[in-house]
Amino acid sequence: MPLETDELNQKAVLRAWDGSSYDDYGEKKIGIATEISVRWKQGRSTTIDVLGNTVALDSKAIVDREVKVGSVMWLGELECLPVSGSIDWREVVDYSEIPDIKGEEVRRLVSLQKYSLETPASI
Fold first, then answer.
1. Parallel, antiparallel, or unpaired: how do β-strands 106-114 and 90-99 relate?
2. Residues of 79-89 as b/e, b for ≥16 C-beta within 10 angstroms?
3. Calpha distance 97→28 (Å, rounded)
4. Whether the predicted model's global pTM rises above the 0.90 cut
5. End-to-end CA distance of the chain
6. What is the 3-state secondary structure (H, E, C) of 40-78?
7. Cβ distance 69 to 57 under 8 Å?
8. CA-CA distance, 66 to 108, in Å (whole number)?
9. What separation in angstroms does the CA of 92 have from each of 2, 3, 5, 24, 102?
10. Smallest Cα–Cα separation from 111: which of 70, 61, 65?
11. Are 71 and 92 in contact (CB under 8 A)?
């Protein structure tokens, strides 16, 4: 297994956003839940967004696939996802790909912050 995707031993639930779907209230409509392999790192940090604003981050994760900014993730297995109640969703606010020295493999890193809504609307 390449170093870029090695040690992705944790599971997370991803609800991907296609970048253009909104409900009648202007909230993002997010896809169905999918389980992915990750390496999740909790901890607060900050970054600068494309407009030059400082953005507070709650966690970062190395993921096994491309994830669009605006998608939401939850640390845990899909079968353990609570059906109702408060779920600790995290919104993807930054996505980057870091190629290896040969340009053959890519490490995918997402930066996450607490999602403001309890449960995102489905597509």
1. antiparallel
2. eeeeeeeebeb
3. 24
4. no
5. 34
6. EEEEEEEEECCCCCEEEEEEEEEECCCCCCCCEEEECCH
7. no
8. 7
9. 24, 23, 19, 22, 28
10. 61
11. yes
Sign of torsion over alpha carbons 19, 32, 113, 85:
positive
Taking the CA of residue 90 as centre, how many other CA atoms within 13 Å lie in the half-sphere pointing to its CB?
26
DSSP calls for 84-111: SS----EEEEEEEEEE-TTSS-EEEEEE
Cβ atoms of 72 and 123 closer than 8 Å: no
Question: What amino acid occupies position 89?
Answer: W
Two tokens, residue 100: 């290896």
| Per-residue pLDDT tens over the stretch 29-62 | 888 899 999 999 998 888 877 788 888 899 999 9
